Amino acid sequence: MSLIHLSTQEYKDWTLLFVAQAGKRSQPLDLQKLVFPDVVGTKGLLIVAPVKNWVAAAVMIHYRNLVRWVSVHDPDLKGAVVVSSQSRDRVTGEVIPLNLDCLVCGKSLRSDAKAPYCVEHRGNNPINH
User: Fold this and answer.
1) What are the percentages of helix, strand and coil residues in the chain, rounded to 5?
2) Is the dihedral of CA 61, 91, 67, 49 positive or negative?
3) β strands within 1-129, DSSP E
4) Label partner for 5 (CA 20 to 30 A): which of 26, 76, 112, 113?
5) With 80 as the cut, is the pLDDT of residue 30 above it?
């Protein structure tokens, strides 16, 4: 069983892929045990990955030719940076605005081993509760 968990949530034009580590003991060989969820190839992929850089890189590399574009969340930019694109809709380097705050109370979402959640509301959807 992998200590790294991937979960998805579908939206109209993109799929949110949340990557989490169960504990801080993940090792590079854990990449061999990753279970990659299926995604819709006609959409973009927005990766939220508060994990080690090599985990996020492995996930991006796996999906980059399976979807229209791939972006990675950057909390400092309050958005997701497009890192790979096979579409005219998005260009590499573009920042897609993204609010990962709870819509109910406005607090930043936390993460556990499965998905983002609001401490107050325990909702697991970063966009809507």
Assistant:
1) 15, 35, 50
2) positive
3) 4-10, 14-21, 44-48, 69-74, 79-85, 95-97, 110-111, 116-117
4) 76
5) yes
pLDDT at 101: 59
- Cβ(120)–Cβ(104) below 8 Å: yes
Distance CA 61, CA 24 (A): 22
Q: Which residues pair with 80 in a beta bridge?
A: 73, 96
Q: Tokens 């940076």: give the residue.
A: 81
Convert the pLDDT of each residue in 52-65 to its tens digit.
889 999 999 999 99
49 and 56 in contact (C-beta within 8 Å)? Answer: yes
How far apart CA 88 and CA 30 sit, in angstroms, is 35
| Global model pTM greater than 0.90 | no
* Cα–Cα distance for residue pair 79/100, rounded to 1 Å: 9
Half-sphere exposure of 95 (CA within 13 A, CB side): 9
